[in-house]
């Protein structure tokens, strides 16, 4: 890298590829297609513009919180890409992959691992689609919004934020916000090891002395396995790329069948794909080993996240270099995830 210590600069894609990505040019292509259709020819299937939520006044009527965000941005409108079928999603994924393949692999891997800049055109598209899903879910899914009256409760998280989470758990310290910091799901293995020290607890509790004694008796590898039940390491989170969002609430109990957010989950399953989103952590995907447990609140923008998976598959060395760079401050706390990160990355659902 020729800019040591500095932010990783984004290298523009080839001009023709860059052009394919911008929403403006998508709109232009759509206009051209409409013209072609008007001329009586058949329109080929592909991306088409779903809607433009135009004037701020209209948006304000839709959702106050979102309107503020849009009103402060340039243009104050949301252009939504519509995906009527899986074919449309896969066509867009192929387009994104072509863009990725024109990038410097180190820079692309830096973005994917949460330590580099997002390719601007992709960022714009993801931001727009997340807003489209947010507006639609707020209107259509019913049920209460989440923490602080938000629909999107978690979105982009860079590697340093994920490292803070990982280290807090690994070191068994309480968070600074005064919360108790209970985390994870205690494995059977840890229960066998510590027995009475853990009593009937479901989660690890850093403020409990018995839990602390047990935790300190675990090997670095065992600690990682415990953390990985419900969390992941810096560089490996799907929240790094900007493709993935948590909606409404991340409390599993609220999302169970018949729970207070089950109606929202039903709506998401029926409608999120129209905006390009799928649920990557499902009951089925969680059966692989190792894998993240089911998360009904976590939704992913398929055209970019699926392209990223193919990119990682084709460029594991560039990814590994970035991860080792993130973990070099203390490699001992990453021995287990270093062996298994690809399993966690690839053991996900692709189902639309
Ligand atoms: Zn999530």
Topology:
Layout: H1 15-21, H2 23-38, E1 48-53, H3 56-62, H4 64-72, E2 78-82, H5 86-100, H6 105-112, H7 120-140, E3 152-154, H8 159-170, H9 188-194, H10 209-217, H11 220-227, E4 244-247, H12 262-271, E5 277-278, E6 298-301, H13 302-314, H14 316-327, H15 335-346
Antiparallel strand pairs: 1-2, 3-4, 4-6, 5-6
Helix pairs in contact: 1-5, 3-4, 5-13, 6-14
Bound molecules: zinc ion.
Strand fraction band?
Answer: 5-15%
Number of domains: 2
Shape: globular
> What's the helical proportion of residues?
40-55%
Which residues sit in consecutive blocks of at least 5 with pLDDT less than 50?
Answer: 1-48, 50-75
The rounded Rg comes to: 22 Å
Give the ordered list of helices and strands. Answer: HHEHHEHHHEHHHHEHEEHHH
Q: Could you tell me the mean pLDDT?
A: 83
Oligomerization status of the protein chains: single chain
Describe this structure in words.
It is built from 15 helices and 6 strands. By secondary structure, the chain is an alpha+beta fold. It has 2 domains: 20-156 and 239-346, no CATH class; 160-227, no CATH class. It has a 4-stranded antiparallel β-sheet with strand order 3-4-6-5. Strands 1-2 form a two-stranded antiparallel ribbon. Residues 1-48 and 50-75 have low confidence and may be disordered. It is 47% helix and 7% strand. The protein binds zinc ion. Zinc ion binds next to strand 4.
């Amino acid at each position: 890298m020729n800019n040591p210590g500095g932010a990783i600069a984004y290298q523009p894609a080839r001009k023709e590829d860059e052009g394919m990505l911008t929403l403006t040019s998508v709109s232009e292509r759509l206009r051209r297609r409409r013209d072609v259709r008007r001329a009586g020819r058949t329109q080929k299937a592909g991306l088409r513009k779903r809607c433009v939520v135009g004037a701020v006044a209209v948006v304000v009527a839709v959702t106050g919180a979102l309107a503020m965000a849009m009103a402060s941005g340039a243009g104050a409108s949301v252009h939504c890409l519509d995906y009527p079928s899986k074919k449309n999603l896969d066509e867009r994924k192929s387009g994104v992959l072509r863009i990725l393949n024109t990038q410097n692999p180190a820079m692309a891997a830096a973005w994917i691992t949460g330590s580099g800049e997002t390719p601007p055109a992709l960022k714009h598209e993801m931001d727009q689609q997340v807003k489209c899903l947010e507006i639609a879910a707020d209107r259509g899914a019913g049920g209460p919004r989440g923490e602080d009256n938000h629909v999107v409760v978690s979105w982009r998280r860079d590697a340093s934020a994920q490292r803070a989470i990982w280290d807090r758990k690994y070191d068994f310290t309480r968070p600074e916000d005064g919360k108790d910091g209970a985390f994870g799901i205690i494995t059977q293995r840890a229960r066998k090891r510590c027995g009475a020290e853990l009593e009937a607890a479901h989660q690890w509790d850093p403020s409990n002395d018995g839990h602390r004694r047990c935790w300190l008796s675990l090997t670095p590898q065992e600690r990682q396995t415990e953390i990985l039940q419900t969390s992941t390491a810096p560089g490996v989170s799907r929240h790094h790329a900007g493709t993935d969002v948590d909606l409404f609430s991340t409390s599993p109990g609220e999302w169970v069948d018949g729970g207070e957010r089950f109606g929202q989950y039903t709506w998401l399953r029926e409608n999120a794909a129209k905006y390009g989103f799928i649920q990557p952590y499902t009951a089925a995907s969680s059966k692989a080993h190792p894998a993240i447990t089911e998360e009904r609140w976590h939704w992913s923008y398929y055209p970019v996240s699926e392209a990223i998976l193919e990119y990682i598959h084709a460029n594991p060395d560039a990814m590994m270099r970035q991860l080792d760079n993130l973990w070099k401050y203390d490699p001992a706390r990453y021995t287990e995830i270093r062996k298994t990160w690809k399993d966690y990355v690839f053991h996900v659902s692709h189902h639309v």
